[in-house]
Design a protein that fits this description.
TIM Barrel; 277 residues; alpha/beta; two-stranded antiparallel sheet; single chain
Length: 277
């Protein structure tokens, strides 16, 4: 169970060779080293992560899809190996077969950037509900290979809210309880820099959906664009954006830099608690 009385940290664990920030971090040569991935998961929990999000397919702009077997070979051994850590284990996937295998291996959250829109994904997620899993549906305009090619919105906040409202309705119609649904506006997924900034500025609007909101802004390219330096250190800006999201109502922040985010979040929580006392 996740306690949303205070904002939570989701630690990123991409067991891929090509994810935009930590791709290849857990490989020795061409082979995934499960021990390295487990070590990082344990480290993030000690640093303050309540959720560990394990992904086996890169969804960075221009990413190429991987085969079902390759994705399974990447994520399942890691999910099995991290059982017992004091955190919710999430699988970052859009593939129904991976969802089912991951939950059977011990995952307690399905985090889908395609919002359960692939054939069979909604039914797969629904079939896992008896095990108490959470389901996170994210907004993405287009597909990873083309999503950054001239994305257009009438109003990005309104359009994304409407899309997520529709996916919440699809989830509940499929038998997924509302208290197990989480939404993600999808920063950087089919959005320009201006769209991302408008989305963050209007993040409070998503509270009307009456489900927890997950935000992922960590180390994204928008930081380099804002700073005018593609190679700039993105840790401090990432933490700043995460706290901005928290102040605007985010319930979960998905980050690479857990320790730094946890320290900043502790300060925000302390101020909030003092104001409420």
């Amino acid at each position: 169970m996740l306690n949303f009385s205070n904002p939570l940290i989701m630690g990123v664990l991409n067991v891929t060779p090509d994810s935009f920030s930590d791709g290849g971090s857990y490989y020795r040569g061409q082979r995934l080293d499960v021990r390295l991935a487990v070590q990082r998961a344990e480290e993030m929990v000690l640093e303050g992560a309540a959720v560990i999000d394990i992904g086996g397919e890169s969804t960075r702009p221009g990413a190429v899809a991987v085969s079902l077997q390759e994705e399974l070979d990447r994520v399942i051994p890691v999910i099995e190996a991290v059982q017992g850590i004091p955190a919710v284990v999430s699988v970052d996937t859009s593939t129904p077969e991976v969802m089912l295998a991951a939950v059977s291996a011990g995952a307690a959250m399905i985090n889908d950037v395609r919002a359960l829109d692939r054939p069979g994904a909604l039914a797969a997620a629904s079939s896992c509900i008896e095990k108490g899993v959470y389901v996170c549906v994210m907004h993405m305009q287009g597909e990873p290979g083309s999503m950054q090619t001239a994305p257009v919105y009438e109003d990005v906040v309104t359009d994304v809210c409407k899309f997520l409202e529709g996916r919440i309705e699809a989830c509940t119609a499929a038998g997924i309880p509302l208290d197990r649904v989480i939404v993600d506006p999808g920063f950087g997924f089919g959005k320009t820099l201006a769209h991302n900034l408008q989305l963050l500025a209007g993040l409070e609007a998503f509270s009307a959906l009456d489900v927890p909101v997950l935000v992922g802004l960590s180390r994204k390219s928008m930081i380099g664009r804002l700073l005018g330096d593609a190679e700039a250190d993105r840790v401090i800006p990432s933490v700043t954006l995460a706290m901005q999201a928290v102040l605007k109502g985010a319930n979960i922040v998905r980050v690479h830099d857990v320790a730094e985010t946890a320290a900043a979040l502790a300060m925000v929580n302390a101020v909030n608690q003092a104001g409420n006392s």
